[in-house]
Amino acid sequence: MLNRKQFIRNAALSAGAVLAGPSVMEAAEALSPVRLTILHTNDTHSRLEPFPMDGGRNQGLGGIAGRTSLINQIRKEEQHVLLLDAGDIFQGTPYFNIYKGEPEIKAMTAMGYDACTIGNHDFDAGMENLAMQLTNHASFPMLICNYDFNGTPMEGKTEPYKIFKKGKLKIGVFGVSIEGRGLIPDNLFGATKYLDPVQKANEAAALLKKEKKCDMVICLSHLGYKYGDNKVSDEVLAKESDNIDLIVGGHTHTFLDSPVILKNKKGDDVVINQVGFAGIILGRLDFEFSKFSGKNLVKNHNISVSQKSGG
Fold first, then answer.
1. How many Å apart are CA 272 and CA 290, to the nearest integer?
2. How many beta carbons lie within 10 A of that of residue 106, not counting itself?
3. How far apart are CA 134 and CA 189, in angstroms?
4. 3-state secondary structure of 233
5. What pTM was computed for the model?
6. DSSP summary character for residue 209
7. In what order do the strands lie in the sheet with 81-85?
8. Which of 108, 70, 133 has its CA nearest to residue 280?
9. Which of 141, 143, 138 is nearest to 161 (CA)?
């Protein structure tokens, strides 16, 4: 039981908090951590339906119905969610051969993707087709900072970066992609100019972090996770970067069991994640932002997508 002195002291503190009112609440809110959930896919390759039940290792996995259910459930549970894709949306099933990417882009719009980057197979039905699909059916931007599309049908159809506001957070997202020559037929790559991805990525990241004051900078990369030679990869980019916090990768169809964390040129952490191909995994990364402890990856979970996903 409180003695008289303790009772008076506690009552005075309570009265002070009431009199301070919103300022105390605002201070508490400012000090509480903010959570950001990043969901991501890569190399979905027109896999709109699950793999057939034919005894194959991926049977029953993938499909937009299961992915949509998972995304919707997570959005109900988390306040701040970003949904991103690292390219190669097209090519891989008859849906693309017949409809040239329309159902894929419509599905991503319906799922509420926030942004994607471009992969080499997204050129497979021609730049005119990709430009038309984006113009007619995409509610999200295609981000790419190291392709110069001037003088091509894709001119004006992409953006180098985009900033997303999530509560009091500013999240900068940009995209880079692989060298097209030798990988994309000349008649499809056309007059596109490929620019050095490390240089352009560092320019975009510096702009977002220093000038735009973003709390986090995310690179959507279709460079590939790593190679046996000196070819530019996510691993190379991370080590040669200054201001990138997270690389969401694609192209090499790499299934990472957990994110890889490397040091950039300043000795800061760069998180890399990639979730295979065909949409059979939905990547999830949860970050917490705190005034005192900064930005931290507090949870990662590669979620299997199937017909039963989401319950």
1. 21
2. 18
3. 17
4. coil
5. 0.90
6. I
7. 115-116, 81-85, 34-41, 281-290, 294-304
8. 70
9. 143
| Phi, then psi, of 31 in degrees rounded to 5 | -90, -15
What does each C-alpha distance from 246 to 121, 160, 217, 228 come to in angstroms? 24, 17, 7, 22
pLDDT tens digits, 8-41 = 455 444 444 444 455 544 444 556 899 999 999 9
H/E element, 263: strand 260-263
Question: What is the biggest distance separating any 2 CA atoms in the chain, rounded to whole angstroms?
Answer: 87
- For residue 106, the SS3 value is helix
Residues 6 or more apart whose Cβ sits within 8 Å of residue 55: none
Which amino acid, one-letter code, is at 97? N
Amino acid 91: pLDDT: 98
Is residue 293 very low, low, confident or very high in pLDDT (cuts 50, 70, 90)? confident
Q: Which two tokens stand for residue 185?
A: 């037929």
- The pLDDT tens digits for 80-95 are 999 999 999 999 999 9
Write the DSSP assignment of 184-198 as a string of letters. B-HHHHTTPEE--HH
- Give Cβ neighbours of residue 245 (< 8 Å, ≥ 6 apart): 216, 217, 218, 269, 270, 271, 295
Mean pLDDT calculated for residue range 155-181: 97
Identify whether the C-beta of residue 125 lies closer than 8 Å to the C-beta of residue 96.
yes
Amino acid at site 66: G
